[in-house]
Structure to design on (124 residues):
């Protein structure tokens, strides 16, 4: 069972990146999926989540209107990031919640599968 995040990189402020999260080993199509980020020396923060059907999404206030979470096929989730800012710099993690009672969980402890993270660096 593995989640593989990719798509990170170095981008200038105002630019865009699209992160992907591919699952292997089992089907995650019935689980909510989420993206979190963690800057050096700081706690892991919620970014966005999507319900198992894809019909419900929620975002952190800091990214609302700039980021879009989506899911495709059975085992791929995306995070489209536009109008990037230097404060978006962090390692981004995708996660799956197989046991949460929430449609779109927002806290790390609601997720039980995690990817390895992908670095996003936004230069000013």
């Amino acid at each position: 069972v593995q989640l593989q995040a990719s798509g990170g990189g170095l981008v200038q402020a105002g630019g865009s990146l699209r992160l992907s999260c591919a699952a292997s080993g089992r089907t995650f199509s019935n689980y909510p999926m989420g993206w979190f980020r963690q800057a050096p020396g700081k706690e892991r923060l919620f970014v966005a989540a999507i319900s198992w059907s894809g019909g419900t999404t929620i975002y952190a206030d800091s990214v609302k209107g700039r980021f879009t979470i989506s899911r495709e096929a059975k085992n791929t989730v995306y995070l489209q990031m536009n109008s990037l800012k230097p404060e978006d710099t962090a390692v981004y993690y995708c996660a799956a919640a197989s046991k949460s009672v929430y449609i779109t969980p927002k806290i790390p402890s609601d997720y039980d599968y995690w990817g390895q993270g992908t670095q996003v660096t936004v230069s000013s």
In short: Residues 35 and 105 are 10 Å apart (CA to CA). The radius of gyration is 13 Å.
